């Protein structure tokens, strides 16, 4: 974990995280990513997809502590994907696969569609958008673990409606406490469960989930 935090703080080829402060990275980002493990079913996952992985949060910390799981890091930006490959090679994370593509494309690929026990996302998009990205990637009975901040009732309701359209349901949420040394932020895990098959038309073409989120009230 410390070696990974140092890589995030020292990498010069791309801006993979918004700060170079080592302590902030270690406490506020790397260790924070392990809060996903509060959701105990994640600990038994054998195939996990980290969507919009960026600098590898939470996917890389989870790969470190879950060496028997196959972790797929999905990242559309080439420079960030290069950093993820660098990290996985330097840390010898043989359980990590980096996919440099848009998640809408990955989720239509038969290699990845319906193949994962858990999807994770961290500060990526509205819940409805995340639902359209993740539910096609999950097997039936699989879960999305979304790391979110302050409660937004409209976003939650929209996300619930979107999940139903995609073969999922809002499973619950778990509040996350911060370690005393870290900046205190409101944190929670939002959980979706896949309970049915996702219609073949989802996810829609690249960019559509963000431009026209599912679950909006007309």
Automatic annotation (TrEMBL):
Keywords, in A-Z order: Cytoplasm, Methyltransferase, rRNA processing, S-adenosyl-L-methionine, Transferase
Subcellular location: Cytoplasm
Spans annotated as Disordered: 199-218
Name of a matching Pfam family: GidB
Residues reported in the UniProt entry to bind S-adenosyl-L-methionine: 52, 57, 75-77, 103-104, 122
Main subcellular location of this protein, as a coarse class: cytoplasm
This enzyme's EC code(s): 2.1.1.-
GO cellular component: cytosol
GO MF entry, a single one: rRNA (guanine-N7-)-methyltransferase activity
Entry-linked HAMAP family: 16SrRNA_methyltr_G
Record function comment: Specifically methylates the N7 position of a guanine in 16S rRNA.
Protein name as annotated: Ribosomal RNA small subunit methyltransferase G
UniProt source species: uncultured Rubrobacteraceae bacterium
Classification lineage: Bacteria, Bacillati, Actinomycetota, Rubrobacteria, Rubrobacterales
Gene that encodes it: rsmG
